[in-house]
Design goal:
Layout: E1 9-13, H1 19-33, E2 37-42, E3 50-51, E4 56-58, H2 59-69, E5 75-79, E6 83-84, E7 93-96, E8 100-104, H3 111-125, H4 143-148, H5 155-165
Parallel strand pairs: 1-2, 1-5, 4-6, 5-8
Antiparallel strand pairs: 3-4, 7-8
C-alpha cells in the first residue's frame, strides 16, 4: 500500500527475541503495508527507562530514545520486557505518527498476537487511528481484546491508509 522508500521500516529487536519470530513479523508488516523492511538490527533495552518499583520499562522513554537520541524515523522496536506509560498499568506498545513505535512481547503469548500488535503499532506510524470496526486497529486494553481482534485492516482503514500517505512528513 505504501510505495515510497522514505516510508520503509527499520525493525530493532531485543537480542532475547528469536530472529525467526522477527522475520515472520517483518514479512507480515511488509505484506500489510506494501513496504520494505530495510534493516533488522538487535538493540538492547536501555536501563534508564526501567522503573524499579514497578519492574517495568517506561515505553515513552524508549520511544523518545530512538526519535531524539538516535534520530530514527519509520522504525519498530520490539522488546521482551514489560512496558507501561504513566497512568496505565501496562501497554502492549505505543507509537508516534511519522516516526516509530515500541512494542513488547511480554504479554503476547502467541506469534499471532505478536503479529497483530506489530501491525497495529505500524498502523499508527503510518497515520491510522484506533478503529471501532472488526479491524487490527481496534484498541486493546486487555489480553482478551488483543486476542480476539482480527489480523487484518478493515476496508475503512485500508482507504484511510492510502489517503494518509500523502500527509506523511518527509
Amino acid at each position: 500500500m505504501i510505495n515510497s522508500k522514505k516510508r520503509d521500516l527499520t525493525v530493532f529487536f531485543d537480542p532475547k527475541i528469536s530472529l525467526d519470530e522477527i522475520n515472520t513479523i517483518a514479512e507480515e508488516i511488509s505484506c500489510t503495508y506494501g513496504i520494505q523492511i530495510i534493516e533488522k538490527s538487535e538493540l538492547s533495552i536501555i536501563s534508564s527507562a526501567l522503573n524499579k518499583s514497578r519492574n517495568q520499562y517506561n515505553g515513552q522513554i524508549l520511544l523518545n530514545y530512538l526519535i531524539e537520541n538516535k534520530k530514527q524515523r519509520f522504525f519498530l522496536w520490539i522488546v521482551k520486557d514489560d512496558l507501561y506509560i504513566p497512568f496505565r498499568n501496562f501497554v502492549f506498545g505505543l507509537a508516534t505518527k511519522n516516526y516509530g513505535a515500541v512494542l513488547t512481547f511480554h504479554r503476547l503469548v502467541s506469534i499471532n498476537m505478536k503479529i497483530k500488535e506489530s501491525i497495529h503499532e505500524c498502523g499508527h506510524i503510518y497515520g491510522l487511528n484506533h478503529c471501532k470496526n472488526n479491524c487490527v486497529m481496534q484498541y486493546s486494553s486487555s489480553f482478551n481484546e488483543a486476542m480476539n481482534k482480527p489480523l487484518k485492516l478493515c476496508q475503512k482503514c485500508q482507504q484511510s491508509l492510502v489517503s494518509s500517505i500523502d500527509t506523511l512528513q518527509d
